[in-house]
Design brief:
The complex is a heterodimer of chains A (127) and B (151). Chain A is mainly alpha-helical. Among the domains of chain A are: 35 residues; 49 residues, no CATH class. Chain A is built from four helices and two strands, in the order αααββα. In chain A, strand 1 and strand 2 form a beta hairpin. Chain A is rod-shaped and about 90 Å long. Chain B has one domain. In chain B, 87% of the residues lie in helices and 0% in strands. Chain B starts with a helix and ends with a helix. Classes of the chains: A mainly alpha (127), B mainly alpha (151). Chains A and B meet through helix 2, helix 3 and helix 4 of A and helix 1, helix 2, helix 3, helix 4 and helix 5 of B.
Chain lengths: 127, 151
């Protein structure tokens, strides 16, 4: 290393130092960032989890039907009309993310389950 | 053990590793689902024995803490990525341009390119980490909401 430094003139030493700085620092950063961004696990939900979600949705709809809250089809999706007034406290809280905005009529803020109507497996029997 | 418990166990196990944003979005979709919340609360309400019931509630608390810890971890990593990548990269570029103007252009081309790469990688990495921070925040918030509803 000492001999190398002596054999280079000023400009060559500068070029070498700059090349090292310009390559080594970004390289270290790249390796570090890769380790930070390394991810494992799948994407979205697994098949079993999707199935569980459908089953739970079916259960929820069935329970509502038992209480006499019939779903209706509106704009191609299943809704529960003004179910907010009839839902239990727990369910209301669960649907808290879907509170009506100012100026909406009850039919407009009807609770719409996350599962679209085109998904036949999630419909409660008889709907 | 129910399927809901299995799901929560899987989530807790995966959160201990490093799931990606797509997986986190899937978990968020499940936890946000009113059907899942209702099912979980029904299950908790149906357990008469206080010991397993408390164990389930503690599991939910643990999950919430894990989400919060991961959110903080991602936030720190994002800050580091911004400082090292973007700030460091831009500093390298500016410093090299100034040095190139004062001394010679050619030796300073490499640090300029390297600095640009660092800055670009830093921006991309920080945006990914920012998204994950946001998702973990939402997951922690939703778990807290569920815990509030536990009868």
């Amino acid at each position: 290393m000492f001999n190398l430094a002596h054999s280079l003139d000023h400009n060559e030493a500068l070029a070498l130092a700059m090349a090292l700085v310009g390559v080594v620092i970004p390289l270290i950063f790249t390796v570090w960032l890769r380790s930070v961004l390394k991810r494992d696990g799948g994407d979205g939900l697994t098949g079993d989890e999707e199935l569980l979600r459908m089953q739970l949705t079916e259960n929820l709809w069935a329970r509502r039907k038992q209480r006499g809250v019939e779903p209706t089809v509106k704009d191609g999706r299943f809704t529960y009309g003004s179910v907010i007034g009839k839902a239990s406290v727990v369910e209301e809280a669960a649907f808290r993310g879907r509170v009506p905005s100012v100026g909406q009529t009850p039919s407009q803020y009807a609770i719409v389950p996350d599962v679209p109507a085109s998904s036949p497996d999630t419909r409660p029997a008889g709907c | 053990m129910s399927k809901i418990s299995d799901f929560l166990d899987t989530v807790e196990r995966e959160i201990g590793g490093a799931p990606g944003a797509a997986r986190l979005r899937g978990i968020r979709g499940m936890l946000d689902d009113p059907a899942f919340v209702a099912g979980l609360l029904d299950e908790l309400g149906g357990i008469d024995n206080p010991v397993p019931r408390n164990a389930k509630i503690i599991e939910l608390w643990r999950l919430r803490r894990a989400f919060e810890d991961n959110r903080q971890k991602r936030r720190s990593e994002k800050d580091l990525t911004m400082q090292f990548g973007v700030t460091g990269g831009v500093t390298m570029i500016v410093g090299s341009i100034v040095a190139a103007a004062a001394v010679a252009i050619l030796p300073f081309v490499v640090p300029i390119v390297g600095g640009a790469c660092m800055a670009l990688q830093g921006v991309i990495g920080a945006s990914r980490l920012d998204e994950e921070t946001h998702l973990y925040g939402q997951l922690a918030g939703q778990t807290a909401e569920i815990l509030k509803q536990v009868p």
